[in-house]
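Below is a filled-in request sheet from our internal design queue. Each sheet records the structural input a requester submitted and the sequence that came back. We keep these sheets so that new team members can see what a complete request looks like end to end.

REQUESTER: design group, bay 2
PRIORITY: normal
MODE: inverse folding
CHAIN LENGTH: 372
BACKBONE (tokenized):
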């Protein structure tokens, strides 16, 4: 086994919280078992000082676990890993933020690669009622979109990873403000507008302070609100980078799919149409629309048969997804969802329906099994 110092992964530990891994003495003997708790900061510091260690294989088994996990476990793994991302983003001023960001990005990227349809499902079906979490949720959704679109554009693995991290951090300096704005019913105040206008610069500065030295990543964060007609901000340039353009398209698209206190989410087919009409000749926009389709996983639809359900998988065309039907043509709830191939006669999608109009809900574990 190979080991690293416990002090090198201190961002993974919290006082009074269960240890996420075993802790070993310098002689490689077990000192603390996974799940045990450290009771005080002093005790934690003492462990650092005595040179305790962690098994590297245990630290990095997250992506391997995801690649081989049963399909019905994937929704729970999404919940767990998105919680980890949230904790990391909320602790962006920590001296170990850069390392923590690298660490939480790996399993989420593995989840996206394992089942892209379920990844899209996370973007569409974010049913949190806590508007103050909007900034965190939006960052995660943008990151999912950017990784998927980067892969469709055949960017390299390193470029797709950079896109994911850049999207996750482009609004780092205004996560709390985004929650406030999503909750309030009045227009932004002058002070809020100043913070909005400066957030690309401030987010870049936070990343530099955290030790991020990737020039393309930093540039994209700083330019993700710039426009080719110079109407953007903060500098009004007309040549934002390709990565900045991807961040911007993901930002706009996922914002349309999200609700606010005074606004329901836009229907997925309309959101896709609007983002496409914005600049149909742009290859990044075209790739985004092709990746998500007209009826992406997570949107509720009605079929020509009169049945209603939720899209669980993209189909052979953007108009023909796989649907888990949850109500029959009379509107009666089904005990178990029925998989429908909408390429079949009489089963075509005829409309998207709002989430609040669908009264039936199915456990995510059941729906995950219907993508095979």
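RETURNED SEQUENCE:
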């Amino acid at each position: 086994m190979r080991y690293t110092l416990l002090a090198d992964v201190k961002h993974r530990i919290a006082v009074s919280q269960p240890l996420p891994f075993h802790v070993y003495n310098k002689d490689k003997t077990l000192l603390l078992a996974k799940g045990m708790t450290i009771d005080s900061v002093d005790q934690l510091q003492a462990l650092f000082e005595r040179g305790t260690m962690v098994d590297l294989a245990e630290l990095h088994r997250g992506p391997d676990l995801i690649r081989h996990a049963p399909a019905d476990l994937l929704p729970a793994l999404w919940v767990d890993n998105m919680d980890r991302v949230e904790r990391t983003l909320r602790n962006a001023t920590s001296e170990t933020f850069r390392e923590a960001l690298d660490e939480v990005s790996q399993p989420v990227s593995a989840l996206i690669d394992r089942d892209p349809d379920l990844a899209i499902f996370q973007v569409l079906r974010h049913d949190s009622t806590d508007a103050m979490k909007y900034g965190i949720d939006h960052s995660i959704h943008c990151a999912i979109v950017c990784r998927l679109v980067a892969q469709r554009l055949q960017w390299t693995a390193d470029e797709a990873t950079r896109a994911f991290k850049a999207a996750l951090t482009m609004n780092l300096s205004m996560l709390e403000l985004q929650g406030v704005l999503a909750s309030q019913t009045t227009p932004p105040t002058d002070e809020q507008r100043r913070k909005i206008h400066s957030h690309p610069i401030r987010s870049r500065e936070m990343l530099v302070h955290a030790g991020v030295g990737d020039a393309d990543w930093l540039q994209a964060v700083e330019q993700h609100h710039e426009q080719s007609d110079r109407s953007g901000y903060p500098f009004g340039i007309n040549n934002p980078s390709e990565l900045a353009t991807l961040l911007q398209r993901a930002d706009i698209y996922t914002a349309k799919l999200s609700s606010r206190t005074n606004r329901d989410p836009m229907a997925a087919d309309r959101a896709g149409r609007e983002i496409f009409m914005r600049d149909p000749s742009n290859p990044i926009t075209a790739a985004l629309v092709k990746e998500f389709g007209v009826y992406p996983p997570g949107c509720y639809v009605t079929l020509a048969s009169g049945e209603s359900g939720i899209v669980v998988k993209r189909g052979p065309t953007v108009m023909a997804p796989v649907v888990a039907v949850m109500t029959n043509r009379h509107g009666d709830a089904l005990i178990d969802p029925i998989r429908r191939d909408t390429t079949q006669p009489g089963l075509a999608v005829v409309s998207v329906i709002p989430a609040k109009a669908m009264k039936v809900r199915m456990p995510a574990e059941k729906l995950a099994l219907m993508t095979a």
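SHEET NOTES:
- The chain has three domains: 3-59, 69-292, 300-371.
- The CA atoms of residues 14 and 38 lie 8 Å apart.
FILED BY: M.R.
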